[in-house]
Design brief:
The chain is an alpha+beta fold. The protein has a single domain, classed as Beta-Lactamase, CATH 3.30.450.30. It contains three helices and five strands, in the order αββαβββα. A five-stranded antiparallel beta sheet has the order 2-1-5-4-3, sandwiched between helices.
């Protein structure tokens, strides 16, 4: 049985350099649905990414910037991108050279599923 997120995650994982994508609960970091390559630690990424996104969202609101739109963490070995709405967070895990611009556009368009 597929969820509303199955096609979206299948589309995102096909991008060169993407090793995983997940929909998680913002509050608890629990995985709602995931599409991960072998070896990706989904539960760890889910919990940590949801926490980072939640803190970034709260910081943006506290600073008077309004709602956070797109969150990106860049490190030596990869990137984590996140967008959220209605207590769900869409997370994409990628290699350092992943095309973040294309991923960002698709992630922001996908927010319609989170309404």
């Amino acid at each position: 049985m597929s969820s509303p997120f199955t096609a979206l995650l299948g589309q995102l994982i096909r991008h060169r350099g993407v090793s995983g994508c997940l929909v998680v609960g913002e509050r608890d970091g629990m995985i709602v649905e995931a599409n991960l390559q072998i070896g990706v630690k989904g539960e760890a990424f889910a919990a940590l990414s949801a926490s980072l996104y939640r803190k970034a969202r709260r910081s943006a609101l506290a600073a008077g910037f309004g709602e956070a739109g797109f969150f990106e963490l860049t490190a030596d070995a990869g990137r984590v991108c996140a967008v959220g709405r209605n207590e769900l967070v869409l997370i994409v895990i990628g290699e350092p050279a992943v095309n973040v611009g294309l991923i960002r556009v698709e992630m922001l368009q996908a927010m319609e599923l989170f309404a």
